[in-house]
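Researcher: Please predict.
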Amino acid sequence: MIKSRIKVLRKKGYSYTEISKKVNKSKKFVWTIAKNIKFSEEGKKRYHKKVKGILSKIKNQNKNLTTQKIRIIGHLLFDGTVYNSNNNYIARYITSSKELMEQFIKDVKMIYGLNPTAIENYGYCSKVSFKSKLLYEDLMNYFKSYSTSNQNIKIPKRIMNSSKKIKIEFLKSFFEDEGSISATGRLAGDLKSYKIINQLGILLKEFGFKFGICKYLEPTGYMYKIYFYKNKENFDKFIKYGFFEKAIVTHGKNKGKKKIMVLKKAASKFKNP
């Protein structure tokens, strides 16, 4: 009886979520029963008018990248995820910094007009999720995957050839999410993707940073590290461009402190030979 009702409702253009509530069954159960059911002509009209059209609306998107949009893209790439599972279109960001979380939510609201679907806190981290097919589709115009363990993706030309302001904001999102500073002032940033690390290096060279790139093995596979030479010029540039402005140290002696404060302390003690 319930299975038949599920199929009828799906044919009439009801979403899996709507059906789940009506029959008091999990969305996964509903999807298993109704996944192969096609909408009737009236069902198609209902779905696009009352479900897809309402739940997926976002602001019209400007073709030009803004600082807010590149921050969204960067944070999702370096410390987030964008995926589609059983027609659930999710963009999610995870951070230990309250300031970064607040900035991300504000940016998504400004650029896409969306409010969070869920905000979760666990340990010293927070996770914010947005559910929207149109948000997902727009983000996929920039990267085919938002997993840096995917060795086939790379930073698109529209970012690599963008203005200095956009490049700096993209680099900033990388260092706020994946950058580190040790108690002795050693600066670095790590990723699983060689292609993206190499491209980040190209961008860093444009701004005069001095660094190297090395490869090392972790239990989860090979990683690539950008490490910076300890000179005053590198310290000053990190501070100038605000690469650690809102980030928090999550391990070691300075755990819980803002990275920018640790950086400034290290810079104040450093002198060129």
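Model: Residues 41-55 form the longest helix (15 residues).
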